[in-house]
């Protein structure tokens, strides 16, 4: 069965269905309801046997690149100037088809936001490449 990564974003993706403030500006009960929904999704995926993994991420990030054979790695914080994209978290699922991945992503997209209203956020679906063939 194919595996898919369902990626949630703090920022980035197509134009949002509706704009909402950052989660740290939500009422505490709205943030709690949102997190409870995401945990519920994990439970549903475990029950169906489609769960591989999931993780939420903080908005803090560090970019790293090779500094050369005689240098330390080069680092910089934050998103690069040309992109505001920032990953919030992900689910790894193993499902029968791309159609099922779309169905699950749509459900995740219905998560509650401020005031309990669904966010209808974009969820990025990425199929995991099959393992590379062994070398000769």
List keywords for this structure.
alpha+beta, Alpha-Beta Plaits, 4-stranded antiparallel β-sheet, two-stranded antiparallel sheet, 2 helices, 6 strands
Describe the fold and architecture:
With 136 residues, this protein is of the alpha+beta class. Helices cover 24% and strands 26% of the residues. It is flat and about 55 Å long. It contains two helices and six strands, in the order E-H-E-E-E-E-H-E. The protein has a single domain, classed as Alpha-Beta Plaits (2-Layer Sandwich). The strands form two sheets. Strands 2-5-1-6 form a four-stranded antiparallel sheet, with helices on one face. The chain has a two-stranded antiparallel sheet with strand order 3-4.
Helicity level: 10-25%
Order of helices and strands: EHEEEEHE
- Tally the structural domains: 1
CATH topology: Alpha-Beta Plaits
Separation of the first and last Cα atoms? 26 Å
CATH architecture: 2-Layer Sandwich
User: What is the overall silhouette?
Assistant: flat
CATH superfamily: Dimeric alpha+beta barrel
Uncertain segments are none
Radius of gyration (Å):
18 Å
| CATH top level assignment | Alpha Beta
List the helices and strands and how they pair.
Layout: E1 3-11, H1 28-48, E2 51-56, E3 62-65, E4 74-77, E5 86-94, H2 98-109, E6 124-127
Antiparallel strand pairs: 1-5, 1-6, 2-5, 3-4
In short:
The chain has helices spanning 28-48, 98-109, and strands at 3-11, 51-56, 62-65, 74-77, 86-94, 124-127.
């Amino acid at each position: 069965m194919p595996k898919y990564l369902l990626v949630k974003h703090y920022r980035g993706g197509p134009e949002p269905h509706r704009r909402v403030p950052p989660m740290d500006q939500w009422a505490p009960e709205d943030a709690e309801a949102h997190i409870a929904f995401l945990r519920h999704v994990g439970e549903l995926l475990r029950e169906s046997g489609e769960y591989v993994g999931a993780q939420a991420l903080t908005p803090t990030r560090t970019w790293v690149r090779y500094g050369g054979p005689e240098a330390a790695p080069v680092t910089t914080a934050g998103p690069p100037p040309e992109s505001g994209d920032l990953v919030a978290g992900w689910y790894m699922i193993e499902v029968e088809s791309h159609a099922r991945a779309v169905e699950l992503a749509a459900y995740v997209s219905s998560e509650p936001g401020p005031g309990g209203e669904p966010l209808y956020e974009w969820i990025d679906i990425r199929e995991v490449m099959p393992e590379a063939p062994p070398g000769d």
